[in-house]
Design a protein that fits this description.
Layout: H1 13-34, H2 39-55, H3 57-73, H4 78-84, H5 88-103, E1 111-116, E2 122-126, E3 132-137, H6 142-153, E4 157-161, H7 167-184, E5 191-193, H8 200-207, E6 215-219, H9 222-231, E7 244-248, H10 254-266, E8 275-281, H11 285-297, E9 301-304, H12 306-309, E10 316-317, E11 331-337, H13 340-350
Parallel strand pairs: 3-4, 3-6, 4-5, 7-8, 8-11, 9-10, 9-11
Antiparallel strand pairs: 1-2
Helix pairs in contact: 1-8, 2-5, 2-7, 3-7, 5-6, 6-7, 10-11
C-alpha cells in the first residue's frame, strides 16, 4: 500500500488549477459509474477499506506521528493536537465506522412519495445521488474515512481536501479507501484526496469547479466556513460554531444528569461535539452544587452566572463572551435558567453570532 503523497509539494497556482480541473473531470466520470453501483458492491468496498485500515494501521500511525511532531513544533493548540492525534484505538474505531456505514440501508432508490394523476400517469419521487461532493476540512484525519465512506454509501463521488496538518495521516487513510474501491472494481476516483497542501486548491474548489462539483461541505472552524460561504460558486452545506449545550431539567435524575454532564464535557474536550455550556433549570437548583463540584473535581474549569458562582469559591464569573464560547478545552460555562423555554431562548440567542469585545 502506497501512503506517499505529493501533498508536501508547493506547485505554482497554474499547476494547482490544472491539477484540480483534472481531479474534477475524474470525479465527474466516476460519479456516473457510482450512481449505478449496486448496494452490495458499495458495501463490499467499505468492508474492504475497513479491513485495509486494520491491516495497515501501523503505517497510518507512523504517518500520524510525523504529522503530530510537525504540528507540535508549530505550537498548535491542545485542542487541534487532540483532533489530529491517532492511536491504535482511534484507528480501529475509524475502521469500525466504515463497517457501520456498510451496515446502513442504502438511501439510493428509496421512494419518498408516489401518486397517480387523473389521466392514470403514476409518478414517484425517488432519492438519487447529488453527483460530486467537495468536502473541505481541518486537522481531523478521521474525516477522510468518515466523509469518504458516507459519500460512497450514498453513491456520490467525493473530492476531499484535508487540513495541511494532517497531510500524511489523511494520505495513509485514503490509500486504504482506494484499496477498498479497487477490490470491488470501482474507480479510485470515486474518493479522491487533493494531493497538495497549497491553499490555491481550496480556491479552485470554491470558484473554478462549478462544472465538476455539485455541492461543497466545509467542516471546521468559523473562519473556514465563512470563507467557503463567501467564495463558493456552488451550493454550500455549512455550519458555524459548535457551541453545544446540556440542559438539566427539574425532573432530571441526579446521578444520570451528573454522568451525562461529565461525559458530554470531558470525554474529548477538543471535538466540536463537546458540551461548552451547562444550563440548569431553577427547579433543579438542588443539583447545581453537585454538578459544579463534579466538574471541578474532574479538572474542568467552571465559569458561571451569579447563582452558580455562589455554590463554590472555585467557580469563576462568566462574562457575556462565555455564553458564545467554543472552548474546545476543559472549561464550561454554567447558567441557571427558568425552565426549558428559557433554555431554548438562551440557545437561540447564542447561535446568532459571537459578540465582539469592547
Amino acid at each position: 500500500m502506497n501512503t506517499h503523497s505529493s501533498a508536501v509539494s508547493r506547485p505554482d497556482e497554474q499547476t494547482v488549477a490544472d491539477l484540480m480541473q483534472a481531479i474534477g473531470r475524474e470525479a465527474r466520470s466516476a460519479a456516473g459509474v457510482l450512481a449505478l453501483a449496486p448496494t452490495d458492491q458499495k458495501n463490499r468496498a467499505l468492508v474492504a477499506a475497513a479491513a485495509a485500515l486494520r491491516a495497515h494501521r501501523h503505517r497510518i500511525l507512523a504517518a500520524n506521528e510525523r504529522d503530530v511532531a510537525d504540528a507540535t513544533a508549530r505550537a498548535l493548540s491542545a485542542a487541534l493536537l487532540d483532533r489530529l492525534k491517532l492511536d491504535d484505538k482511534r484507528v480501529l474505531a475509524i475502521a469500525s465506522g466504515l463497517d457501520a456505514i456498510a451496515a446502513l440501508p442504502d438511501p439510493i432508490g428509496t421512494v419518498l412519495a408516489e401518486w397517480t394523476r387523473p389521466n392514470g400517469m403514476r409518478i414517484q419521487r425517488v432519492r438519487v445521488p447529488l453527483g460530486v461532493i467537495g468536502i473541505i476540512y481541518e486537522s481531523r484525519p478521521n474525516v477522510t474515512a468518515d466523509a469518504g465512506g458516507l459519500c460512497l454509501k450514498s453513491s456520490n463521488a467525493v473530492i476531499l481536501r484535508g487540513g495541511s496538518e494532517s497531510t500524511r495521516s489523511s494520505a495513509a487513510i485514503h490509500a486504504c479507501l482506494e484499496q477498498g474501491l479497487e477490490v470491488v472494481g470501482l474507480p479510485k476516483a470515486c474518493i479522491q484526496l487533493v494531493p497538495t497542501a497549497d491553499r490555491a486548491a481550496v480556491g479552485s474548489m470554491l470558484a473554478d469547479m462549478a462544472d465538476s462539483i455539485d455541492v461543497i461541505v466545509p467542516r471546521g472552524g468559523r473562519s473556514l466556513v465563512e470563507r467557503v460561504q463567501k467564495e463558493a460558486r456552488v451550493p454550500v452545506i455549512g455550519h458555524l460554531d459548535g457551541v453545544c449545550h446540556v440542559y438539566v431539567d427539574r425532573d432530571a435524575q441526579p446521578d444520570m444528569a451528573r454522568r451525562i454532564v461529565l461525559n458530554a464535557k470531558l470525554r474529548r474536550t477538543g471535538v466540536c461535539g463537546a458540551a461548552e455550556t451547562l444550563l440548569v433549570d431553577r427547579g433543579a437548583i438542588a443539583q447545581l452544587g453537585s454538578l459544579v463540584q463534579s466538574l471541578l473535581d474532574a479538572g474542568c474549569e467552571v465559569r458561571g452566572d451569579e447563582t452558580t458562582a455562589s455554590v463554590d469559591v472555585r467557580v469563576g464569573h462568566a462574562d457575556e463572551q462565555d455564553w458564545y464560547a467554543e472552548y474546545l478545552d476543559a472549561i464550561i460555562a454554567v447558567r441557571v435558567v427558568d425552565g426549558v423555554d428559557a433554555a431554548i431562548a438562551h440557545m437561540n440567542t447564542t447561535v446568532r453570532g459571537i459578540p465582539t469585545r469592547s
